[in-house]
Design goal:
alpha+beta, disordered C terminus, DUF3669 domain-containing protein, Znf_prot_DUF3669
């Protein structure tokens, strides 16, 4: 099965390596606003959940990281957003990927992923897979547990007006980018609140690093990866480079914190079924994270603006400029489970399910095991692991068969996928290669 693109080596850029000396002079106002908004949100969350100053880190995390745990009106945030529209606040880097750099402007609920040089096709692949997945999730009669960030726009480097309006706030240019460039605009997955971040630091950060980690502004951009397929090793020393960006929240931690791991397993199983059998996306290297969702009103999304079906979008010329500006009204935040990061995903034609079903299933199994350990493990070692695998696989099969019920020619494929995952795990263990995807990545 042909892929749109394959995994490429990360450039290894660190945040500071992407900041020129000139840019440092413009960072303080942006960071100050970001910190102000962050503190406002944190204060509201603390009041909403009745979190006292003497709460243990475990109690704080149990309250904040449970999905649907709070819903807080943030009128002060909205006021600050209006004020910021009249203020020259620069974009702020909040993430780095293989194909692009991710920026936000504090107080606004969208992010811009800008393609690195030579990664423009990967960014278009990201847009294509994201579009298909978002469309598939929107079509469900019952809203899935897992959320997909809204997709607003694709901006080409030839869009002179957009770059004229935005380039001044991206200047000086980080040296890994060449602007103007291709860009995607999506809903921002808002970070976990400060009180949860500090609890993570208090509970898991090495004592010698706690002050430095707490003071590092990059750790405001905290999303927690949900690793149902990994436990921390008791023999490994604490990580010397503790960071809250893409924090790896392992199964043993979630169990200790009393988080709803069963709900996570079922939600991820449901999401993967929709991605496979409604969106026809292979889910290669996607991520499942805990973050905050804002209640936003949008004038238009790209799907509504263009009135495209999924099939029609696949026929679009790569790098079509679909910029349609939106109005964002921030209301409140709720902790949610999200799926994101589609730049390494492949999209297949539905005909493949009939003409090459064995090749398709083999490819989906490979993608499953190449991911970070978000999924519960086949051939579980403990009762907890067995329960999670049973929930994941049962929910996956149930949702997939529901999606395929109109075409019995395909209805056997979801069960075959699960069976082949178990078969591969058995073969891996028999060869002494370790437990599936648990050992693939650090």
């Amino acid at each position: 099965m042909d892929r749109l693109h394959r995994k490429q080596e990360s450039s290894g850029d660190s945040p500071m390596s992407l900041v020129s000396a000139g840019l440092l002079a413009d960072i303080n106002p942006t960071n100050q606003l970001s910190a102000l908004l962050d503190q406002q949100h944190n204060d509201l969350v603390t009041r909403q959940l009745n979190i006292s100053e003497d709460e243990t880190p475990d109690n704080v995390l149990s309250k904040v990281l449970t999905p649907n745990s709070f819903s807080t009106t943030a009128s002060s945030f909205a006021i600050t957003q209006k004020e910021q529209e009249r203020t020259a606040i620069n974009y702020r880097t909040i993430g780095f990927g293989q194909c692009g750099v991710v920026f936000e402007r504090p107080g606004r609920n969208y992010v811009i992923k800008i393609a690195r040089p030579f990664y423009e096709d990967s960014l278009w692949a990201d847009f294509t897979a994201h579009f298909q997945v978002r469309k598939a999730f929107e079509a469900q009669s019952t809203e899935p547990v897992c959320r997909v960030p809204k997709l607003f726009s694709y901006v080409t480097k030839e869009n002179e007006q957009w770059w004229k309006d935005n380039l001044p706030f991206l200047s000086p240019t980080p040296h890994s980018l060449s602007l103007p460039a291709m860009a995607i605009i999506t809903e921002r997955i808002l970070p976990l609140p400060k009180i949860a971040r500090q609890a993570l630091i208090n509970a898991y950060c090495p004592a010698t690093s706690k002050l430095a980690v707490s003071a590092n502004h990059t750790n405001r951009d905290c999303l927690a990866r949900v690793y149902l397929g990994r436990r921390r090793s008791a023999n490994l020393p604490p990580t010397p480079n503790f960071t809250l960006r893409n924090y790896n929240l392992c199964l043993d931690q979630m169990i200790d914190l009393g988080l709803p791991v069963q709900s996570f397993a079922a939600g991820i199983g449901e999401a993967l079924a929709i991605i496979h059998w409604a969106a026809h996306v292979d889910a290669y290297d996607i991520e499942f994270v805990l973050g905050s969702e804002g209640d936003i009103n949008y004038t238009r999304e790209v799907s509504a603006c263009l009135n495209l079906s999924g099939a029609e979008q696949l026929k679009m010329t790569p790098h079509t400029d679909v910029e349609s500006l939106m109005k964002v009204n921030f209301r409140h935040r709720t902790t949610r489970l999200f799926v994101l990061d589609f730049n390494l995903c492949g999209v297949w034609d539905e005909k493949c399910q009939l003409t090459s079903p064995d090749a398709l299933i083999s490819h989906l199994v490979t993608s499953f095991f190449e991911n970070d350990p978000y999924y519960a493990l086949p051939l579980p070692e403990s009762d907890t692991d067995k329960n999670l695998w049973d929930l994941f696989s049962m929910t996956y099969i149930t949702k997939a068969e529901e999606l395929l019920c109109a075409d019995p020619r395909h209805s056997h494929l979801p069960r075959k996928f699960i069976q082949q995952c178990i078969k591969r795990e058995k073969e891996s263990l028999a060869c002494g290669l370790g437990r599936g995807h648990r050992d693939l990545k650090g």
